[in-house]
Amino acid sequence: MTVARPPALHLARLSQATPDEALDLPESGGALCTLHLTRKRSDEAQGCWYVCLSGELLIDLPHGNFVHLRAQETCRVPEGVARTLTPVREATVLVITLPSFS
Question: Against a cut of 0.70, is the pTM above it?
Answer without folding.
Answer: yes
